[in-house]
Every structure is written in structure tokens, then in C-alpha cells.
Amino acid sequence: MKIPITINLALMLISGFAQNLTGEDQHKGLVFYYDYSEVSEGKVSDKSGNGYDGAVHGNIKIVMDPVHGQVAKFAQGSYLELDHAKIKADGNIPTKAFSVLAWVNVKNNGAHHEIFNARGLELETWLVHSEVRVDDVYRWILRAVGPAPGKTIFEIRGGKPKTGKWVHYAGTYDRHRKPSAILYIDGVVVGTASGNLRVCRDWGLGARVGINVNDSRPFVGMMDEISVWERGFNRQEVQKIIEKGLDGFLVVSPFGKLAIVWAKLKSKK
Q: Top-level CATH class of 27-251?
């Protein structure tokens, strides 16, 4: 017997409530999340519930991929601009922990492709680099707030970049864990590092997806499910995200985000 879709939705929501009573809130620490389902009024919608939509600059198209469905295709020099002032005002710039996760499929052009980048105004320092260096390695680096402003907390270079293929990039940092910094490529650790400093919270010169703030290292290719967090991830969590997708990982939703879950479920009807 087929159960009407409304009953299915209700059962799934009830299940989510029940899980939420006992399970950990997987949204905790999520700053922004772009699933690239659409570009509307020149912006890519933030699915975290925080409202940090990415403003499109250049030519970013939503295309269908046989494996990932709707994804973003970045032309040379195109990027998403975040409202860093709003993120700072909301107190959501990560400092104690910091992670960048994304599916990437870069063009083989021998260049460096920036996934997410932020630069500080006061120090005029590059604070975050999450890169695919086609001719070299995958790179993951963060820089600190005082007492050592601008100091590199860690830098990880590892793995052999693949081009023209989907790869899951997960750079993660938690100053209270050991090792504190880990770079996973397709769920495999390609590098670790130590560090316990807080990440600088000054994004005053900008925060972008797909290019550096000074317009260098443009990401050229396709991208899906990019997210930035104030939390670290272990191998099991990264593997779950790879297997289930970010929506699957976030299925245990807090009460305040029930409307988001409802909207996502309705969109699958």
C-alpha cells in the first residue's frame, strides 16, 4: 500500500523530532552551506539558515551532473562574494575551530584553484587558503589572532591533485584536538599538523568562494556542496558526508530549523 506523501513527510518530521531529543545537533557550528540548486537574483542561496547568500560575480552557471545533480560551473575569474560584515556582526566567523568542505572538479590548466579564501583588513593578511594546486598538491592553511596576529597556525600540503574528476576536499581544524589540523581528500588523510591558536576573526578585506580576494587563483571547473564551519571533523564524519551528502549528514535538525527541513522534503515531491 502506498502511503500518501503528506503522511510520509509527517513521519519523517516526527522521526527528526525524536532523533533530536537524543542525537547531537549536526548543524552546530555551520556558518554557510551552498548546495548550488539555483542562482536567484544574482545570488546563490545559503542553506544553513543563517542567510549568508553568495553574490555572483562573473559567469557561474548551475548545470546538471550525472553523479551530483545540480552543481555550479565556474568560468575563469568568477566567484561568490560573502557579506563578511554581516557574518562578523552575527559572531559567526570561526575562531576556535574551522573547517572547509566541498566537492570539486577542477580544470587541468596547471594553475592553483582557490575553494574558499578570506583576508584581514587590520593585518592585511591571508587568513584562509583551501586550494587545489593542479601542478603540485592540495593545500590547507589558517592564520591566527593575537597574541601572534597573522602567524601561520599550520600549513598542510599533501596528496596528488586529480583534474576532470570529482574529489571531496575536507580541510578541518579544532584547536582542542590532536592532531588539530587534518586534510582529507576523498575521506583519506593526506596530511596533519599541530597548532592551538585561535583563528583570526577579521575578514575585513573580504571572503570569497572560488577566488582569492585579490582576484588571483581563480577556481575553474565545477563545485558542489561547499560549507564552512566552526567545528572540526573526524574521519567517520567526513565519510558520512561523502556517502550521504551534506543534507543526509544534517538530517538530525534542531527545532529552529524545522522549516528548512520541511522545505527540503517538499522539494523532493
A: mainly beta
